[in-house]
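Aim 2 progress update. The chain analyzed this quarter is reproduced below.
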Amino acid sequence: MGTVLPTTMDVSTKAVDTPINPPKDLDAGALLVLKSKGSWLHCGYHLTTSIVAPVLLSLPYAMGLLGWVAGVVWLALAALVTFYSYNLLSLVLEHHAKLGHRHLRFRDMATHILGPRWGRYFVGPLQFVICYGAVIVCSLLGGQSLKFIYLLCRPNGGMQLYQFIIMFGVLLLFLAQIPSFHSLRHINLVSLVLCLAYSACAAAGSIHIGSSSKAPPKDYSLSDDRANRLFGAFNGISIIATTYASGIIPEIQATIAPPVTGKMFKGLCICYTVIILTYFSVGISGYWAFGNDAQGSVLSNFIDGDNPLLPTWFLLMTNVFTLTQLAAVSVVYLQPTNEVLEGLFANPKKDPFSLRNTIPRLIFRSLTVVIGVTIAAMLPFFGDIMALFGALGCIPLDFILPMIFYNVSFKPSKRSLVFWINTTIAVVSSALAAVGAVSSVRQMVLDTKTYHLFANV
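Predicted C-alpha cells:
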C-alpha cells in the first residue's frame, strides 16, 4: 500500500535510460497530418480546443438534472478523473516511446498494447464515430448560432435552420484544407481565448439576469417521479462526462516534437486551468440564475420568448465568440478523419503541396465536410444521438481504456493503490456507460415524437 500515484516521473529505470527511437516507415496519414513539430504550449492549445468547447454551455442544464450537491460534486470529480486519466495515457505513450514504439494514434496504441483486433475493430471505429459525430454536432451548433444572430437582427426572418448549417459548412470547407494538425496551433490559441470570452459572457449574463427584476422563479428541486429523477441523473452524468471528453489524446501528443517527456503534463495544466475557469463559472452561475429552467444551452435562457433579457450587442458578441470557436473545434475533430484519408490517398514521398497530394486532399476533405453538414441539417436532434455515442464512446476512450493501458503496460502490483484506483475507475465508468446508454436511448425515443427531418428548431 506504500505505492504512490503515477506522475510524470513514474516510469521504470530501464525506460528512462532507453533512447527514443522515431517510428519507421510512417504512412502518409501520420507523416502529413500528425507532424511532430509542436511544443508543450502548442499541445496546451490543442488540448483546450479539443475539450473546452461550446458544449460547456449545457452544464447548467446537466446540473439541473442532478441538483446542487450531486451536480457540483460530479463536475469536480469528472475534472479530477479525466486529468488523472489523460496523464496516465500520456505516461503510457511516453513509456512505449522510450522502448522504441512511439504511437501516434489511438488505434496504434490499442493494437500494440491489447492486440490488433482491439485497434482495428473497437478503438479505431469508436474513435472515428466520436470524432466525426463531434464535427456533425459542431455544424449543427454553428447553424443554430448563426440562426440566433439572424433572428436578433431580423426577428421575423423566414430563413430555416438548414440554411444556416450550410453557411457554417462553407466556412468548414475552407478550414478543412489546412494540411496538418500542427498547422492549427495559432487557430487553437485564438480558440482558447474565445472559450474564455464566451464563458465569461455566459457567466456574467447569468449573474446579471439572476439578480435582476427579470429573474425567473428559481426552482432547484428534482423531479417527484422516481424514474424520471433516476434517468435524468444519469443523463446529467453523461452530459458532464462528455463535456470533459477528448478522444484524441494520442494524436495530440503525436504533434509534440521529441523528446515528449513531461510536455503533455504541462499542456494538460494549461487546459485544466481553462477548464476550472470556464466550467465552474458557467455551470454554477447558470444553474443559480435559472434553476430547473436552464435550457440545453444557457444562452437560450437569455431570451424570454421574443424578448431579449440582455442588450442585443451583448448577445451578438457572445454568439460570435461561440460561433468562431465552433469552427476551430470542428477542424480539430476532423483530424482523425483527415489522417485516415491521407493514409489512403496521399503519397508520403511527394511534397504535401504537390498536385499529387493536394487534389485528393481537396476532394476527399471537402466530401467529408459535405456529408457531415448534410447529416447535421437532416437531423437537428443529433445531439441526442451524440449523448448515446458519448456514453458508449467517450467514457470507454477517456475513462476506461487509459486505466487498462496503464495496468497492462506498467503492471502495478495488485496490492498497490494505483492498481485499485485504476480498476475502480474502469469498473464504475463501465457501469455509468451502460446506464447512460439506456438513458440516452430513452431520451431519443421521447424526442422522435417532436422532431422530423430538416426541422427548423
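The two ends are 55 Å apart (CA to CA). Residues 1-23 have pLDDT under 50 and may be disordered. These observations will guide the mutagenesis experiments scheduled for the next reporting period.
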